[in-house]
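Render this sequence as a predicted structure.
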Amino acid sequence: MLSVYTRHNPDCNYASDKQWRRCNCPKWIWGSLAGKFLRRSAKTHSWEQAEEFRLRMQESAAHSCDNTPEETTELPHITEPARRPTVSIEVLPPTPQKPRVTIERSVEAYLADARSRELEIATLSKLDTIFRKQFLAWTKVQGLEYLDQLDLDALLSFRETWKDGRLAKQKKQSRLIGFFWAAVRRGYIAQNPCMGLGKIKVIHVPTDYFPETSSRGSWMQPLVAATNAAGPSRWRTTGQGSAH
């Protein structure tokens, strides 16, 4: 049984793997043929051509054994494949990977940008509370160090820690989404993990006029009486309805 293997050049990147097929190193044949151990060059740098050469060797050996006495051990003559011209392969240096960005660095960069835009002091204070005192502190407790470790599940867990009212939660989530969009624009991460966060429903109650009466009686009469008891009015109304 014959097999193909690669006899790598000393400078080949895959010198440790004799079964690597796609390099430009010479291919060899080895194994047992007609009862004898054989190792010989396939005279090619192509694994496919070496396989064809191996099959022809085995077929020729089998045919020779069928038509010659058993004591014949001479190996059959094999027509070697035409050698292809050697093609030089340019090995490009590996592309350097961009270092991962920590959550702390991203938070500090976001807050520094907010300060450079001269936002209101009250706004800067809220951003510092949300991202440094709450968000960054939470990630450290969770053992999260890098920004690309934060996925939708992590952000949902962080949102569950909020004890604010609905409107405050809505504004906080909006700022969290903005923080991650800033990270995307800086190239810290490829996509915004907040995009799967559902909206926080806020119920707005419209302001209405005070009713003149209620189930407990009129509340306007005591108010009018208290106003009259405070002293004479400083306003006088003319017949035409103008105030002086």
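Summary. The radius of gyration is 42 Å. The chain has a mean pLDDT of 80.
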